[in-house]
Amino acid sequence: MKKVFCYLLLGSLFVLLAACSSDSEKAMEQKSEDSEQLSNEMAMEREEAPVEESVVSDGVTTTERMIIHQATIRANVKELSKAQSNIEQKVKKYGGYIVESNTFQEDEQTKSGQMTVRIPEKHFEAFLSDAEEGVSKILERNVTGQDVTEQYVDLSSRLKSKRAVEERLLEFMKNAEKTEDLLKISADLAKVQEEIEVMVGQIKYLENQTSFSTVELFMIESRVIVPKLDNEELNTWEKTKKQFVTSTNRLLATGSAIIVFFLGNLPVLLILAGVGYVVYWVVKRRMSEQKK
Q1: Would you put residue 84 in left (φ > 0), alpha (ψ -120 to 50) or beta?
Q2: How far apart are CA 132 and CA 117, in angstroms?
Q3: Which residue, 268, 265, 269, is CA-closest to 257?
Q4: What angle do CA 132, 134, 135 make, to 5 degrees?
Q5: pTM confidence score
Q6: How far apart are CA 3 and CA 16, in angstroms?
């Protein structure tokens, strides 16, 4: 009887140990599965999470710096019309547009042109390099950049606040029962909406200025003009005959003028000659008397 009891006790112990071992293996497998699932979820979250460089100000985030780029290039070119045509092609190539284009003829030897173009910000440096390749000499190159990120973020934050105020005023207007309350709310709403329009305009302006850069180009064409030989002006014989005839005409004209002068003034000349002779005779006679 004791032996049977011992056998039963040992059997129970074996069954209990086997059950505990099974539960432990199941628990470990469950922990392993849970750990693997958590790792997969964390990996998926890392893959789905976007990685961005951001600038944060007053709770409003923008993904990149906003810079307004402007450039001025002054250069000498061999042929102005060809240089302007090249610039137009490059502007079209980079997806920009021409704001202004002028040509000035200063004198026979100097001609200049001025162009103002807008180029997408991402092609700004590439366009400048291409534009400088087609000129003879760079006289001036000035590039400036204005960081308006903080201004843009501030406007966006203020606009968001004004939108919230606008929504509350619209809600108050729906629930207003008195006319005076309705008028006051309407006035406040109009003021807020006007401020919103101004902010939206400023934001759009900053977006336009930062998405397209402004480039101003001054091109100067200088030429040395060499006069051509005119064979028609080298006809020596014709010029000699012309000069001879001119000189003869001048002599004849002078002789004619002298003849006309004496003949035309003959009466006066005779009177003057008579008066002169009388004066001369009187003076001579007196001198003779004094000698005696």
Answers
A1: alpha
A2: 14
A3: 265
A4: 75
A5: 0.49
A6: 20
The 10 Å Cβ neighbour count of residue 205 is 13
Between β-strands 212-222 and 137-147, what pairing exists: parallel, antiparallel or unpaired?
A: unpaired
Identify whether the C-beta of residue 219 lies closer than 8 Å to the C-beta of residue 84.
Answer: yes
- Nearest alpha carbon to residue 216 among 72, 69, 100, 88: 72
Q: Report in angstroms the alpha-carbon separations of 250 from 117, 261, 262, 263.
A: 67, 16, 19, 20
Q: How far apart are CA 97 and CA 115, in angstroms?
A: 11
Q: Sheet harboring 212-222: ordered strands across? A: 97-105, 110-120, 212-222, 67-77, 137-147
Task: Return the axis-axis angle of helices 266-291 and 236-264, rounded to nearest 10°.
Answer: 60
- Those residues whose C-beta lies under 8 Å from the C-beta of residue 108, and which sit 6 or more positions away, are 225
Distance from C-alpha of 3 to C-alpha of 9, rounded to nearest angstrom: 10
pLDDT tens, N- to C-terminus, the chain (292 residues): 444 444 554 555 444 444 444 444 444 444 344 434 433 433 333 333 333 344 444 444 445 788 899 999 999 988 888 888 999 999 999 999 999 999 888 777 788 899 999 999 999 999 998 888 878 888 989 999 989 989 999 999 999 999 999 999 888 888 878 888 888 888 888 999 999 999 999 999 999 888 999 999 999 986 655 555 555 555 677 778 788 888 888 888 888 888 888 778 878 878 888 888 888 888 878 887 777 6
